[in-house]
Every structure is written in structure tokens, then in C-alpha cells.
UniProtKB/TrEMBL annotation:
Protein's membrane topology: Single-pass type II membrane protein
GO biological process, one term: negative regulation of amyloid precursor protein biosynthetic process
InterPro entries: BRICHOS_dom, ITM2
PROSITE patterns per UniProt: BRICHOS
Signal peptide: none
Subunit structure: Interacts with BACE1. Interacts with APP. Interacts with STMN2.
Transmembrane segments: 46-68
Protein name: Integral membrane protein 2
Cellular localization per UniProt: Cell membrane; Lysosome membrane; Membrane
PANTHER family according to UniProt: INTEGRAL MEMBRANE PROTEIN 2C, INTEGRAL TRANSMEMBRANE PROTEIN 2
Designated gene of the protein: ITM2C
Organism: Strigops habroptila (Kakapo)
Length: 255
């Protein structure tokens, strides 16, 4: 099958060669033919070799990707616990207050695809201690405000929260220096909306955290509408980080 393809062109070329050669005769026409065929077959040989090498290279790439993934996954512990601290500039309330320190424990469950964060009561107050779950499977975040003993649930915001594997890599890198380099804080404002009665719809991880506690859904408040002083009395703040910056989640009751 292949040979037919290779032999056809020289036959088709011959008349043209004869025409081009003109008066050179039969001897002149036969001589150029073998080199053409030789060049052709060596050309297809190079083609086959290149294709073979390409396939081999692709195979190697896929094999090494597989090996890398396999070893990387088996290397990751099922559960990793990090005790972390960050220094950040408190630009939200007083830019002159200077550097603050935030500590938290981060548990990362790579296989189950969720993160659990415990924020203790900060030394200088201002924000509540809390347990937070980011469930990437369900796409939900739950805050358990320990001071109020209430739970708040909202869709997971992937702009703010790093997925488990990325957070794990970040914290492993940070661990070498214990602290992140100095970072900054952003604020998000939420309003508690309806009461959640069917807790099981929130998935087993959030269920375990929030079951038996008053639980509310949260709605983001647009950045345009700032909290008024009267409302502020009804708000609680939780400062936490699951990225390279600190987030203050302000949770306000219905007013
Ligand atoms: C996620 O958070 C960022 C930063 O606060 C905000 O700009 C964005 O609107 C949020 N996205 C959702 C879907 O809530």
C-alpha cells in the first residue's frame, strides 16, 4: 500500500523530465530517476522518523505528567494543619494604628476538597473568634461566630478563597518563614437574610459545624452602601485569611 504511493511519483515525473531534458535521449532520462526516488524515500523516512519522535515525545510528556501527579497526590497528607500568623497594615479604621498580627489555624482536606479555619479571639479585640468552612465541593462558605454562637452561610467566593491545593502550597512555602511577608486587608459586608432550617442541604462538613446552631443565609452588600452608625451596632466582624491578604467579613443582622 505504501509502496504504491512512493513509486507513483517517479513514473509521473518521467515524461516531464524527458521533456525538460530534450535531446539528451533515453540514457539521460534514466539516470536522474534513481536519485529522485532516493530523495523521496529518504524524505518520507525523515517524515516517519519525525512523527515517531513526536509520538514518543508526547508519550514522554504524558507519562511524566502522570508520574508527577501520582507522586504529588500520594505525597500530600490527607489532612494538613497549619498554625499561621500574618502581619498586616490596618488601613480600614486607622491607617496610623500600624501593623497588626492575625493568627489562625488552617486545616486543609485536599481529597474532600474543603478548608477549615479557626480564628481565635484576637489579642486587641475588634473582631470575633470564629470557625470557618470553605466547602469547594458544594461551593459554600460557613462562618460560625463563636461569640454569638450563630452560623452564617453564603456562596463560596473563589476570588477571595484559594482552593485547598493552592492554599496548601502557599502555606507550605510560608511555613519556611512562619509569617507571610507583610500584607493588607480588604473588607466585605454581608447581611443576614433568611433562617436556614434544612441543614442537610449544606453538605456534611458545614452540617457538622452548624447543626444545632441558629443558621442564616448571607447576602453581599454592595460596596456603595456603607454601614451607617446605627446599623454598625448590629454588626460583627470576623478577620481571617485564606489567601495572600486578610479579609474582614462584616456580618450585620437584619435592620
Ligand atoms: C468576591 O469578592 C470580591 C472581593 O471582595 C468581590 O469584588 C466580588 O464581587 C465577590 N464575588 C462574589 C460572587 O460575591
Amino acid at each position: 500500500m505504501v509502496k504504491i504511493g512512493v513509486q507513483q511519483p517517479p513514473a509521473a515525473l518521467k515524461p516531464e523530465k524527458e521533456k525538460a531534458a530534450g535531446g539528451d535521449g533515453a540514457a539521460g532520462a534514466e539516470e536522474p530517476a534513481p536519485p529522485v526516488q532516493g530523495r523521496r524515500s529518504s524524505l518520507s523516512g525523515v517524515c516517519y522518523l519525525t512523527m515517531g519522535l513526536l509520538v514518543l515525545l508526547l508519550g514522554l510528556v504524558f507519562a511524566s505528567m502522570y508520574v508527577y501527579r501520582y507522586f504529588f497526590i500520594t505525597q500530600l497528607p490527607r489532612e494538613s494543619v497549619f498554625h499561621c500568623g500574618v502581619l498586616y497594615e490596618d488601613s480600614l479604621y486607622s491607617p496610623f494604628r500600624g501593623q497588626l498580627e492575625l493568627h489562625e489555624d488552617v486545616k486543609i482536606y485536599i481529597e474532600e476538597n474543603y478548608e477549615q479555619i479557626n480564628v481565635p479571639l484576637p489579642r486587641f479585640g475588634g473582631s470575633d473568634p470564629a470557625d470557618i468552612i470553605h466547602d469547594f465541593q458544594r461551593g459554600l462558605t460557613a462562618y460560625h461566630d463563636i461569640t454569638l454562637d450563630k452560623c452564617y452561610v453564603i456562596e463560596l467566593n473563589t476570588t477571595i478563597v484559594m482552593p485547598p491545593r493552592n492554599l496548601w502550597e502557599l502555606l507550605v512555602n510560608v511555613k519556611k518563614g512562619t509569617y507571610l511577608p507583610q500584607t493588607y486587608i480588604i473588607q466585605e459586608e454581608m447581611i443576614a437574610t433568611e433562617h436556614v432550617s434544612d441543614m442537610e442541604q449544606l453538605g456534611s462538613f458545614i452540617y457538622r459545624l452548624c447543626s444545632g446552631k441558629e443558621t442564616y443565609r448571607l447576602k453581599r452588600r454592595s460596596a456603595r452602601r456603607r454601614i451607617s452608625r446605627r446599623e454598625a451596632g448590629n454588626c460583627h466582624r470576623i478577620r481571617h485569611f485564606e489567601n495572600t491578604f486578610v479579609v474582614e467579613t462584616v456580618i450585620c443582622g437584619k435592620s
